[in-house]
Design goal:
Blueprint (H helix, E strand, L loop, with lengths): L11 H6 L2 H11 L4 E7 L2 E6 H19 L4 E5 L4 H11 L4 E5 L5 H11 L3 E4 L4 H9 L5 E4 L5 H5 L7 H4 L12 E6 L9 E5 H8 L1 H8 L11 E4 L6 H13 L2 E4 L7 H10 L4 E4 L1 H14 L3 H4 L3 E4 L6 H9 L4 E7 L3 E5 L13 E2 L9 E5 L5 E5 L18 E2 L5
Parallel strand pairs: 1-10, 3-4, 3-5, 4-7, 5-6, 9-10, 9-11, 11-12, 12-13
Antiparallel strand pairs: 1-2, 7-8, 13-14, 14-15, 16-17, 17-18
Helix pairs in contact: 2-3, 3-4, 5-6, 9-11
Length: 408
């Protein structure tokens, strides 16, 4: 972790890390022997330390280095699982922009994304080989690599590639901070999905959200290295990236279920087996949890959680109030791929304001989140053009700012 003089508020910590990949590298050394990943395997959960994840992903990066072949963007199609994290980290270690393609996309949508991003290097798992191959065939010069399910036990027994320092580039400078590192696309509900370029600054600020909260509200300590998070959200969405980065920032551990969406039985087993202290999920999963808890009448696993963060869709007020009445600290979080995670409810466990939001990026010296009066009598929320949380090239206001309402 950066020294105490490096903060998120003044962005000095961002200049300390310089890039998301370097952030993962640094954290892997800082928390080398601590558990980073808890993944489901054969009716139990196995663990991997930060140093083990680092070694596995470094070896994979060395193995795949030749596939980069001078291209700037690599695409990946897979479901959310522990292999997704390994592949993402490995490809990003090649200093190539990672395009996270949701497996829910149609072939025309995938082709459109490949064209817009000029991605010629495509990785996919056997389940998505057919659609990936068909899409690649429509892109001149595109090549598909099919990755078999990773044998984690075998990779754990492999030593670090002795040439990794020759193969990979570990020279990070301040120029990397505002360079694109990852692409997430919009939902594409009304048209083809739109690729949204995320800089290293964006990803680092997403990862350090809880640290920023702590800087502003010193009496609240959202997470620390002893926490374990169950995140029921995929890595090809902002919410999933936010959770993974937040875990890495404090040296805590994260859980990978067999797949998403999970059953309530799977969630309950994961919470208990791993002694979870934090959870993140879309509202629908939490709403489905209520009848399960009512039927089994055992609230011990969810009442142990410091907080349960939800986002991505509206949460029924009566459901939230039910959780509060049963001493489960659900908390609202708000953001979008264009603007990052920028607001959340009061994380103080004593607070009952579970559904209200506060802008976390507003300081006494400067406010990046503004409520603007409009002619229709409503207030529109927008981010100023100099906000450190904005994705690249998404301005939709004459002053260079971003109005999230204008994207929907």
């Amino acid at each position: 972790m950066p020294s105490a003089i490096n903060s998120i508020s003044d962005q000095s910590a961002i200049y300390y890390y310089k890039s998301f990949v370097n952030f993962i590298n640094v954290q892997s050394k800082t928390y080398a022997d601590r558990v980073f990943v808890r993944y489901y395997s054969n009716n139990t959960f196995k663990t991997l330390t930060y140093s083990e994840v680092d070694r596995i992903t470094t070896n994979l990066a060395c193995e795949w280095a030749e596939k980069k072949n001078g291209f700037e963007v690599v695409s990946y199609i897979n479901e959310h699982n522990v292999d997704y994290m390994f592949t993402m980290f490995a490809l990003m270690k090649l200093r190539i922009i990672f395009l996270a393609i949701s497996p829910r996309n149609s072939e025309p949508a995938i082709v459109n994304l490949l064209e817009k991003t000029q991605s010629k290097v495509i990785f996919a798992t056997p389940k998505y080989e057919s659609i990936a191959q068909s899409a690649a065939a429509k892109i001149d010069g595109a090549k598909l690599t099919v990755i078999q399910p990773l044998d984690i036990e075998a990779m754990l027994n492999q030593p670090l590639n002795p040439r990794y320092k020759e193969i990979l580039d570990f020279n990070f400078t301040e120029k990397d901070i505002d360079q694109p590192a990852l692409i997430i696309h919009s939902s594409g509900s009304t048209n083809f999905p739109k690729p949204i370029y995320l800089s290293n600054r964006y990803l680092l600020n997403a990862s350090s959200f809880f640290q920023l909260y702590k800087e502003q509200y010193s009496h609240v300590h959202p997470m620390n290295e002893d926490d374990t998070m169950l995140a029921c959200v995929p890595l090809f969405h902002l919410f999933g990236l936010f959770c993974l980065g937040s875990i890495a920032f404090v040296g805590a551990s994260t859980i990978f279920l067999k797949g998403l969406p999970p059953s309530q039985k799977e969630i309950d087993f994961a919470l208990r087996h791993n002694n979870c202290t934090v959870m993140a999920a879309p509202p629908i999963i939490l709403e489905q949890m209520i009848p399960y808890l009512q039927e089994h009448n055992d609230f011990s696993a969810v009442q142990r959680l410091k907080f349960v963060l939800f986002g991505g869709a509206p949460f029924k007020r009566e459901a939230g109030e039910w959780f509060q009445a049963h001493n489960v600290n659900v908390r609202n979080a708000y953001g979008s791929t264009e603007m990052n995670v920028t607001m959340c409810a009061d994380l103080d466990p004593k607070s009952k304001n579970w559904n209200s939001l506060r802008p976390i990026w507003n300081f006494s010296s400067e406010s990046y989140i503004v409520l603007e009066n409009t002619d229709d009598g409503l207030k529109h929320l927008y981010l100023t053009s100099n906000s450190p949380t904005l994705a690249l090239g998404i301005s939709n206001r004459p002053d260079g700012g971003f109005n999230n309402a204008m994207t929907h």
